[in-house]
Amino acid sequence: LPEQLEDKTPGADDTMETDERHGLVREALRYVDERYREVLHLVYVEGLKVEETARILGTPEGTVKTRLMRGREALRKILVRRNPEHFPS
Questions:
Q1: What is the pLDDT along the chain (89 residues), one digit of tens a residue?
Q2: Which residues have CB under 8 Å from 88's CB, separation 6+?
Q3: Whole-model pTM?
Q4: Residue pair 67/32 in contact by the 8 Å Cβ criterion
Q5: How far, in Å, CA of 20 to CA of 25, rounded?
């Protein structure tokens, strides 16, 4: 019964940790190569689809997908290296 009554809404601690992690991601993005950062921003921040991003940048969709993959990996490496307590490998 206690697990049925448990409040699943995020508390202040969860919100603070989420805010801190978002800040760390924004900071780490500064160190990602511009080509990757631009694609990551358009897709994940602006919410554009790969096709739309490709059209805006004038690049093939395959290039956008590759840059997303490489950008995510570069971002992951930066986050793990700089903040292992928040982003374990």
A1: 555 555 566 665 667 778 888 889 899 999 999 999 999 999 999 999 999 999 999 999 999 999 999 999 999 999 999 888 888 87
A2: 80
A3: 0.75
A4: no
A5: 9
Q: What is the CB-side half-sphere exposure of residue 58 using CA atoms within 13 A?
A: 0
Nearest-angstrom CA–CA distance, 46 and 62: 19
DSSP string for residues in the chain:
-HHHH---S--HHHHHHHHHHHHHHHHHHTTS-HHHHHHHIIIIIS---HHHHHHHHT--HHHHHHHHHHHHHHHHHHHHHH-TTTS--
CA distance 74 to 82: 12
State the pLDDT at residue 80: 92
Q: Which amino acid does the sequence have at 70?
A: R
